[in-house]
Amino acid sequence: MSSTEANINIKVNIKLPNVHAHHGKKAPTQEKLSLQFNKDSKVQTVLDVLAVAKQTKFLTNIQLKHNDIVLNDEQVLAELTSEKAVEKDIPVDISVELKPYSYRESLRHSVIVRDLIGFSSETEDSLSEFAISTGSKYESLNLSEIRQKDPEAEKKRKEEEEAAKKQETEKGEETEKKGHFLDVTDEEKEATAKMVREIFKSQKESSLKQFFTTSSALITPCVRSLNLSQYNPVPALYKTKGHLLYLQVVTLEGESLHITATPAGFYVNKSSNSKFDPSLKTKTDEDSDNKSHGRKHEPHQVETTFYSLFDLLAAHSKNFTSHIEKLDSKLATMENASYVKPQTAYLHKPWLISNVPSNSGDYSKLQQDYVNNIVNLERNFNDEFQAIKDLPTDAIASRIESERLLAKLIHEFSGVAASGAMLIVQNSMVAMNPDADESEQIFLKDNIFYSYVTDVIGTYSDKGGDDAARAASNQDLLTISILNRINLKDVRYLLTTIVDFGGKRLLAQTPVPGLLGTMGSEVVKDEASGEEILKDLENDIVVSYGYDETSKQVVKDETFDKILGDEFSKVFHLKKENENDVWFSSQSKGIVGFDKRHYILDLASTYPVDINFIRENYENVDAESRYPHRQTLLRPELVEKWWNQKVEDEKDLTMEDAWKEGKFTYNPDAYQIDGIEDKTIDEISDYLNNDVITGVINDFAEGNVTAPYTGSHLVDTLHRNGINTRYLGKIIKVAQAKLDEQEKKHDDRLEEIKVSNAEHEAWEAAYLEKIQKMIKERQDKINKYVQEGKDVPKELSEGLKLDDNEIRKATKSDPVIVGKDELLPVIGMAYIEIISRSLKHIFRFYAKELPVAAISSMVAYFFNLLFGSTYNTSPDAENIDEFYAVSSYAFSSVTRDILIKSIIKEAKLRFRADLSLETLEKYISYKNLMIKEISTKFGIQLINKNYFFSKDEFETYKQSQDKKIRSKITEPVATFSKDDMVIIPIVKSSNYNSILSEEFWGQGTALVAEDKKEDGLTLMAQSIAILEDVKGVVHSDVAEKYLSMATIYSRLGLVSEAIAFCRKACVIYERTNGIDSFELLRALNNLALLELSNESPLNAASIYKRIIEISTIFELNEFHHPITASIFNNLEQVALGTSNMKLTVEVLTNLAEIIVNLDGKDNVAYGFTESRLGNLCASTKEYNAALEHIVHAENVFTKELGSNDHFTVSAKQWINGLTNLLNDLRQQKILKQDQDAADNSPVIPHSKKSHGKKQPAANPKLAEKSVDELLDFIEGDDHKKPSKNQKKKNGKK
What residue stretches are annotated with the Clu domain (predicted)? Predict the structure, then answer.
């Protein structure tokens, strides 16, 4: 179906019921809504819109009617009208009808109202019971509104720039980039300068605690509490009177309202905390009650049943209404992505939690499970999942609905699975086999099957046991994520989630229908005893394709074989060696479930093994040095990259034909089963080692890929290129080799320049001597003519005739750059990742035997050993209580030396990295970054407080406090305590992508590339709209699309629109990835550049301050990361654009200091910075400072570029010019002093020696002049006078 069909909409007029809303000025609800829907939308879509619309969101129990006929939720809107009516834009009339409440619907209504009036904070998600979500800092940037430029003025400015550029080109002059002055107010210039100077301070020192202090929740409850009353369940007497349930509300005024729910709605009853009377409370009762208690309350609307609980609360609480109004007005000024709840994603769980959430008393939390069971009923996730996949998807609207339901279900399953897994690790769920060892226990709850990820049945006994099983679970989940991206109707698979907590891993899956059930039982006679016994009938839901664990054989089924051979095998590029083989790995299984659907499971080995890595690091390697397991598969990204490369290399072969024909395939059993080999797998493994890894390092070195901000950023880049983390050690080696190669080239080039400089000096001396000789000869001739009284010939009074071919012109050469900014961050972050991942494995090893309560004690102890050893050289593990004596656990006997050796061993085993003690200590010293990476990987949240890593730090902190509290401060025993942290689960769920959204995006980008911008951008906007519909606004995939849109709009010159997209991306990334995530850093950097190009320097500076704070906190300068230098280069443009020369000098001075701290003064970057400083100082008439900076620049250029390079020559000219200028100024000063003295004293002849008229003898000797000076002397000043543009070019480097 073409994308054009998505634009055929139907106008729908929705008549609303006569329900009075007590909101604001108590205006009646709007009677009619007019909305647009796609013609293929279902009635359910209309209901979904009404559920969020301001006028109807509190109406939770409604049905829709058309022509007095109740509409079915599954009806399509196109069925309610005709094609002619659609063409004429005739609307469809629908009315909303209220339905009487049932017990379930009244309970559901109270839950929805409770969420809508602030009990559902923007920081809550389905993991909030176990972990604390990130707070917000985006609003604290205080960005001004996006500046809208006048298109005509902007067009005129660009035309003028192009015309000037063209004119200069025609004249043969070299065009230079001119400074652009920003059109901003004086107030903004002043604020910008202040912000830039704050950046200087942040670059020196930034507070971790202050940075992670985020704002409190935006959304707060509009009543104190709302929960089920103590008088539930409804007594039998009142059930017959229609009472459904009882609620109790405490308003912001402190008044307690007892509420009765009936089919007609809700009313305030006469009950109190000590008396039960669910009858309607009248005005007389109200007055009597107030009088007896001596209370004065504003008159309420009583003797009324409200259909909506919201209206009842608005009628009885003025503060409720005002709070709602304030909340609405506050949220109206904010981007909706900053407060809406995520639909298919978890909020980020930061490693440092700003505030420990207050746990105010709320009975509804305790009632939540009961309410959910009533409202949602028992769920069978597999039935729902498979039913959604069976939905028709011929129309675009139905495809969107199917994708939305799938994405929502996958996420909901993940949340429920995580909750179940936490019950298991907390010993709160009974196993199906309670007598088995813990690692062998299995569980079933809410139709979800749980098991520990261990090699229980010995499947991986020859491949590494538990380590191999753990790796296989990740690979299985990765394969399921690939299946989520394609729409295979006949092939079914299981919903899967992995939960890691405290060293243990649990796998949660939906079971194959019928697999865990029994087929009944029969009475049989026991042959031995002769007694009758009950025997279970054999289950006929068995493996019918693939590996059967019961028979230990690979079985075959024709139907399964055909289903997998059609599309599944092509998606994964699989092949069979012969007809008796199965299409996937022989370790995988195919089962026909009780629902007759064909399920595939155990898909870990679908991708090929990394045979080169196995040969080098597993096979024929001694046990101590061997990689922990053999389940080392190649990543799907690599296989796709290899496959695409193969197709591109094949002449006359398109991607589509290659896919249909099943070209370039591999056997997944190769090197997994004895005797089976496949040269294709060898080729893919070679491709990884020889091409991909080298290619990625080259991309880093050439600046094609952003230098990693963190270890996680590096891993993300590697994974996108199909490189496994086990290659981190090799990444370091290849990057270091590339760096060494560049340094050697640089050293060789310096030697060449040294020789060239010596040769140039020799030429210059010889040429000077030649010119001096020519001058002397000419002077002799002139003298002779003068002595003879003859006229001097004209040719002797003109300039010397020099051969241009003999004069060496300044050259232009590119310096040999050593990519430290690009490669050192790669090496450094690879070490950070290796060490943090090694520690994760060590933590797991010691934690898996621990009870939940003891894990925090272990983490605090290990953190003290690693990071707090200066504060306390021999910390002790903290006891939990009398039941959990830490001395009985292995971790308590670990010393720092043992821990350090364990890290070095793990680094070698798992990442093949040689980690010296010196290197390890170096990277451990980057405490903030290292603690962050460890915490993120193991699942740790630290309380945001002052942590002291030395006694001096504690004393400094203590002395900084007020005298009154200083004496009350207790010195901590160690840096970390078990009470400083929360151990949280790490939840891994399969990813789901919107196929339809990707199709629209692909079509849009293709049209933009063909210069059909308007159509292309429309399709891309529709792609994002679909993605938001499917996944919700708060999702990192949505943020990624907004960031891409910002880039595209920026390239098209639509900067204001680009900024809007980029800001939204930042808001989403902050909530889904964290305020210190590399995704947010990347987005913020892009946003700052856009704000600067949009002439909003204050916005750009505010954003740069945030980035600098993160960079300083994590010491990115120590990793030679280019972000700080890049920002200061951009701040130079900010300062220049605001015409603040003094600020520009300060920026460049700080930049020069940064460069010197990293690389010293012998580098081109320092030379150019000094040159720019010299230029600026000269423009502000600080000539001495200018000369000093230019001399530094000239020294660098001479060494790095050569004596005859145009930058060096230009610097020399500046030095000569500034020296002469300073001499002139000095002489002028002396003359002025003489004149002042003469005016104020008797005339006394002045000594000629000191201040007399300049004598010729005072001029420099000709032999001491340079070639350029001699040319000036011979040919006159006019000969060397540069044009205006040349002056600018020579001055600005």
Answer: 357-614
Structure-token match 């009177």, residue found = 241
Residues 6+ apart with CB under 8 A from 1076: 211, 212, 350, 932, 1110, 1113, 1114
Torsion angles phi and psi, residue 11, rounded to 5: -85, 130
In order of 205, 483, 1105, 1110, 1152, the CA distances from 202 in angstroms are 5, 47, 7, 9, 17
Distance, first Cα to last Cα, the chain: 57
- Tell the residue number behind the tokens 């990361």, with chain if given: 1121
Q: What is the pLDDT of residues 9-43, one digit of tens each?
A: 888 999 998 875 443 344 444 578 888 888 888 88
Averaged confidence pLDDT in the chain: 87
Distance of alpha carbon 265 from alpha carbon 19, whole angstroms: 12
- For CA atoms 1071, 1074, 1077, 1081, the dihedral sign is positive
Burial of 791 (0-12, 13-18, 19+ CB in 10 A): exposed
DSSP 391-411: S--SSHHHHHHHHHHHHHHHH
Tell me the CB-side half-sphere exposure of residue 1166, using CA atoms within 13 A. Answer: 20
Q: Residue 617 in contact with residue 627, Cβ under 8 Å?
A: yes
Distances (CA, A) of 1234 to 1224, 1238, 1258: 15, 6, 19
Sign of CA dihedral 11, 17, 20, 22: negative
Residue 906 C-beta-side C-alpha neighbours within 13 Å: 21
What the block records as the tokens of 1168 is 């150019």
How many Å is the Cα radius of gyration of the chain? Answer: 39
Distances (CA, A) of 880 to 172, 356, 910, 1123: 81, 21, 33, 44
Three-class SS of residue 1266? coil
818 or 1288: whose pLDDT is higher? 818
Sheet order of strands, 448-452 included: 442-445, 448-452, 504-509, 496-501, 986-989
> How far, in Å, CA of 227 to CA of 55, rounded?
25
**Neighbouring-strand partners of residue 226:** 249
Of 908, 928, 909, 910, give the one whose Cα is nearest residue 919.
908
**Distance separating alpha carbons of residues 931 and 946, to the nearest angstrom:** 14
CA–CA distances in Å: residue 753 to residues 762, 859, 963, 1293: 14, 56, 63, 21
Angle at 1284 between CA 1281 and CA 1286, to 5 degrees: 75
Residue 129's alpha-carbon distances to 118, 275, 378, 422, in angstroms, are 18, 34, 21, 10
Cis status of the peptide bond prior to 708, with omega within 30 of 0: no
Q: List 986's β-bridge partners, or say none.
A: 500
Contact 91, 13 (CB under 8 A): yes
The upper half-sphere exposure of residue 1047, i.e. CA atoms within 13 Å in the direction of its Cβ, equals 12
pTM: 0.88
- Identity of the residue numbered 131: A
Q: Cα 1282–1284–1285 angle (5° rounding)?
A: 95
Question: CA-to-CA distance for 810 and 1211, rounded, in angstroms?
Answer: 12
Coil/strand/helix, residue 1253: coil
Look up tokens 């002055």; give the residue. 181
**Do residues 1116 and 832 touch, judged by C-beta distance below 8 A?**
no
